[in-house]
């Protein structure tokens, strides 16, 4: 068992917050057969799919089964399923407490080839007929090359990251302010997508989107369509039933629907990202094709996709917390540590903002932007949950649903279901809790390396979110956020 797993499983001598105060499995915990089942062929998976997408929704789907089986580990089906996903096996073993979930990070016992979104994998046509980094197992030498390349991109772009972010934020909030002044409220979703596309393209591709008017005005929409078409069979929209089941969850949409846009993005990266492509070839031994399609995946799927989910959730959490006095506390902390001028914002300055960071972590805990993680047993092994030990057979697919795992009452002891913005502050013992914050497919205290599948941007994502919050409280004395819109703003005097 790897060092990582040993740490996650812990021992009786670890801190009281350890998810595993029990002795090693063999001595005390009962070995149980994994409860639950897959139902009748075809019918079982379809019933589960309808529950998942329609009658229950993902959270209730997992919670109900956890209660029914009195276990955080059980067998079930997850979508997509029959009738038109014939090659896809929907059978999984759900792992829903912190201890059980942490097995997903142990690359000695699980493998992660082609399981980014489960047994279903979107066609490689969406990624230039290549399997990009996120679909590669750590045993694949290509994974090492690309993962190291992605870590290098972030290291090198760290010098322009904050100035690019601040300049893109200036133009996003200028637009929102103008709209609020004109119409009394402004939706932030699309301005935010434009801001993300512009900022991330500079940092990841090293290119300025404004060199191509079409990419500058529509690049974010091109990425939205490319993402949507790939992921529709796995996404719960929850408002269009039963049309959603018939038209969105029953079959895969073909690449040609977005081929034209994707090719425009490829051409843009080939033309404007020459420097980063050259580095990938000379320092990481990647071909031009491998580099371009991986860059587009990192830009479009990992970065733009991740932040497009995360930042709106962050704003919505801020809106929800207005009445708790959080805004005043954040503003005080931001201005105390960094004054009122966005020029003074830096990675170092936000690292000093404990409450801002805690708020960001709590948002990631309750709303992990990538809710489900999958991994396949590399060999037979014993999986330990808080309550029992289960025999897992080589080839079985584990599925962790983080929104439930992150409410594990044995770890997040204080009101696990409630948003506590200061949960991760030192005063509350929050630094220890970072060991169990898993949004990046690994603990927040871990390190993303070529030997694991943890998000390459594990450090920079929460820091960017903290900068986003700090910027907001430097710029405004007061802001009201509600239902995806900004309704009132009072700029800093
Ligand atoms: C809010 C933003 C982001 C979120 C929520 C996020 C989340 C994740 C998650 C959950 C995974 C693991 C997926 C799995 O294997 O199950 C992952 C992998 C990855 N992420 Fe991120 N990510 C974000 C931003 C970024 C950014 C900005 C980069 C830029 C370099 C990045 C690069 C990667 C890469 C390269 C992988 C694949 C790691 C590997 O295969 O070893 N991510 N991300």
From TrEMBL:
Skewed-composition ranges (Pro residues): 18-27
Pfam families: p450
Swiss-Prot/TrEMBL keywords: Heme, Iron, Lyase, Metal-binding
Region feature (Disordered): 9-32
GO BP term (any one): fatty acid metabolic process
Highest taxon in the source lineage: Eukaryota
Gene Ontology molecular functions: lyase activity; metal ion binding
InterPro entries per record: Cyt_P450, Cyt_P450_sf
Protein name per its UniProtKB record: Inactive linolenate hydroperoxide lyase
Native organism: Forsythia ovata
